[in-house]
Amino acid sequence: EAYTMNGLEKYDMKHLIWEALEEGIGCKESYEYLRRTKMIPPHKPYNAVYEELFEQLNHFYSLIREDIKSIESKSVCLKTQNYILEGELPTVSNGEYIEYRLGNLRAKHKVEYFIKHLLMAATGSQVDSHYYYIDKKNTVLNLGTIQAELAQQQLEQLIDWYANAMHTKDSLTFFPESSLSYVQALDKIGDVFYALDKAKSAWKQQNKSYGFSGEGEDTWNTISWFGEDPIHTEAFHENSSRFWANWLEIRNKQVLKG
Q1: 3-state SS string for the chain
Q2: Nearest to 80 by CA among 152, 147, 162, 148
Q3: How far apart (Å, rounded) are the C-alpha atoms in residues 71 and 162?
Q4: Predicted TM-score of the model (pTM)
Q5: How many angstroms from the chain centroid is the CA of residue 67?
Q6: How far is the C-alpha of 142 from the C-alpha of 119, rounded, in Å?
């Protein structure tokens, strides 16, 4: 961790605090341990920053503790005509797939979450999935049930898309943040121009308060689409709609109460 005030906001520090919470270790005791091991500098201003971060995570932990305490790893496997998709997913006793993140949930995390949810559904699990995370407020993003046949059909389409992605440049025209901004705006307002403006905003990331660069500033994207505008293409519209179509129907975000 960098010896700066913002250093205590880093993800590694949050995980150390989370481990302390799981072990029942309090703020003062955990702070002293981290200070002795030189993971936190011995300057008084850091104490106040650490206490604030500890309290934030402690509140989040108290809200989701009962839901995550029985998490176990479940093996899932889906065989298609040409591929096998398998992995280990965190589930609880009623079969629900549950994840949590000690920070914000960006579109790239939602991509992974959605694919895992589809895999659970395609292999016979007809229950909701839940992803707890910390935004401006403690939040849970729920994904509702989806028919096994529909989930498998979309997964097979996504696998084929991924496997053949290098064949044409159009197939690469998918950017999680920009694509999700586009389909959500289109679903909400029904205006393509409005939706494209939202996608363009995510591509350029004009709102710097988000704390991360726009996808258009990514080195690979800059090289791949140098001098081009992939957002205003038919491929962008088609690929965005292809990936996020069922997501729009089953997603539900809630602020955690308590």
Answers
A1: CCCCHHHHHCHHHHHHHHHHHHCCCCHHHHHHHHHHCCCCCCCHHHHHHHHHHHHHHHHHHHHHHHHHCCCEEEEEEEECCCCEEEEEEEECCCCCEEEEECCCCCHHHHHHHHHHHHHHHHCCCCCCEEEEEECCCEEEEEECCCCHHHHHHHHHHHHHHHHCCCCCCHHHCCCHHHHHHHHHHHHHHCCHHHHHHHHHHHHHCCCHHHCCCCHHHCHHHHHHCCCCCHHHCHHHHHHHHHHHHHHHHHEEEEECCC
A2: 152
A3: 30
A4: 0.89
A5: 19
A6: 16
Question: Two tokens at 107?
Answer: 């579109």
> Two tokens at 174?
């998918």
Nearest-angstrom CA–CA distance, 98 and 113: 10
Tens digits of per-residue pLDDT, 222-236?
888 887 889 999 999
Q: How far apart are CA 10 and CA 13, in angstroms?
A: 6
Taking only the tens place, the pLDDT of each residue in 46-57 is 788 889 999 999
Could you tell me the two tokens for 161? 């898309």
